[in-house]
Amino acid sequence: MSPFTALLVTPYSESEQSTCQKRGTTSVGGSLSLISHIHGLTHADWIIKNVTHEYKDLDFYIASNSNSIIEVECKGTFKDPKIKPSRQKRSIEEKKKAQRDLESNGEKILYGVIVSYYNQEDELARFRLLDPESDNQYTNPFKLRIQSRLFFYLSLLNLFSKSHFLIALANRLRILKALEADQIKKLNSIPLINSRGKVFDFPISLDLHRTPLPNKDYIGVIFKNTRSDNYYFFGLHRNIINILIKQNFSEIAQFRFQPKTEKVPFFEAHIKNEKRFLTGQIMMSSSGIALGIFTPISSLLQTKKRRII
C-alpha cells in the first residue's frame, strides 16, 4: 500500500465533491507517491509550504532526503476532458518561476507533477514529470528532514496520547527550529528526559490506556464507525516511540518500515467500558502509520447465519 493511498480517498460523494476538489486530492496523492518512490521518502517527510507571490499562491509540498530539499507542485485532471495537460504545465511553470524569484539560494530539486486519471477502467493513470534539478544551493536539508519527521510524529501522537514525553519532544523541536543547521549536531543522541532528569522509558500509558492489539508492535486507539458495525484502529509502530526518545538524528532521518498488510485473529477489545471480540486486518505504511479495520465476531456469525437460512 502506498503511504499516500489515503490521500486518494475523500469523504465526499460523487454529487457533493467538485471536479476541482477531485483533481486536487488525486494529484497530491499520486504526485507524492511518485516522488517518494524516486527519493526514498515516507509520509513523515512531507510538509506543506504556502507562499504568496504577487497574485499567485504557491502551494508546495516540501521534503528532504538529508542531502537535498525537494519541492513538488501537484496538478491533476480527473474525468474532465476540457482540462488539458498543457494548461496545467503552464500553471506549474508560472509558479516555479515565482518560487525562484523569491528564493535565490538553496540546493533544491523543484518538481512539477501532472497526474491524469481517466473514466475507462483499463486506462492507467498517467504521470508527467516537469522541471529538472535547480542550480540553487541550500544549506540545511538534513535539518529539514529531522524537523519534519519530529513534527509529523508529534502531531500524530497528540491525537491519542497525553504522555509526558510529548512535552519534552515539543520543547526539543522548538530548540531545533531556533538553532542554525551547523548547531543541531550538539543535540544529536541527547535523549529526552523527564522532570527527574532521567531518560524516558516507553510510556506505560500507551500500552494500558489504549486498547492494545494482539500484535504488540502497534500502539494506538480503536474506535467504532458510527455508520456500521465496523471498528477502526489508528496508530503507529511502537519502535517509533523509542527512536523519538533516543534522539539519534541519523536513526531519525533514515528509518523506514516495510509496508505490509496482516490479518488479525479475533481478540478481546475494551472500548468505552464495552467488551467486544473483533477480527480483521491491519495495514502499515513505510512511515510506520498503522490503519486497521475490524468486524465484531457477533456480526460475522449473524451474516453466516443468514446465509445458511
What does this molecule look like?
By secondary structure, the chain is an alpha+beta fold. It folds into 2 domains: 5-138, no CATH class; 143-306, no CATH class. The protein contains 8 helices and 10 strands. It is flat and about 55 Å long. It starts with 18 loop residues before the first helix and ends with a helix. Mean pLDDT is 77; it is low at 1-17, 53-58 and 132-138.
Helix share bin: 25-40%
DSSP summary, beta strand count: 10
Q: Please describe the biggest sheet, giving its number of strands, its sense, and whether it closes into a barrel.
A: 5 strands, mixed
Q: What ranges have pLDDT less than 50 throughout 5 or more consecutive residues?
A: 1-17, 53-58, 132-138
Give the SSE order as H and E letters.
Answer: HEEEHEEHHHEEHHEEEH
| Strand coverage percent | 25-35%
List the helices and strands and how they pair.
Elements: H1 19-39, E1 47-53, E2 56-64, E3 69-78, H2 85-102, E4 108-117, E5 126-130, H3 141-157, H4 165-178, H5 204-208, E6 218-224, E7 231-237, H6 239-246, H7 249-254, E8 260-271, E9 274-284, E10 289-296, H8 297-308
Parallel strand pairs: 3-4
Antiparallel strand pairs: 1-2, 2-3, 4-5, 6-7, 7-10, 8-9, 9-10
Helix pairs in contact: 3-4
